[in-house]
Amino acid sequence: FRMGNDALTDYILVSQDRPFVEHFIRQPDGDWVYRSFSEMTDSFEIESVGCSLNLNEIYDRVEFEPLNDPEH
Q1: 33: which strand partners?
Q2: In three state form, how does the secondary structure of the chain look?
Q3: Which of 9, 20, 30, 37 would be a feasible disulfide site paired with 48, CB 3.0-4.6 Å?
């Protein structure tokens, strides 16, 4: 996503097995800023489209499998 598409301003990856979202934001100089979110109460802005999302909305109706606990 870093090369070949100058129109791309945001790149968002959403994990399917746990609450985790990665947001890459292109800066005016072409560099990328990385942000990650892992709390269901976290929210973030997608300024290029004037949108705000929170993990509660993204993962609405998703039921996560329990994490493997090596002690049990």
Answers
A1: 25
A2: CCCCCCCCCEEEEECCCCCCEEEEEECCCCCEEEEEECCCCCEEEEHHHCEEEEHHHHCCCCCCCCCCCCCC
A3: 9
- Domain-wise residue ranges, the chain: 10-58
N- to C-terminal Cα separation, the chain: 41
Model confidence at 11: pLDDT above 80: yes
pTM over 0.85: no
- What does the pLDDT look like over 36-57, one tens digit per residue? 999 999 999 999 999 999 999 9
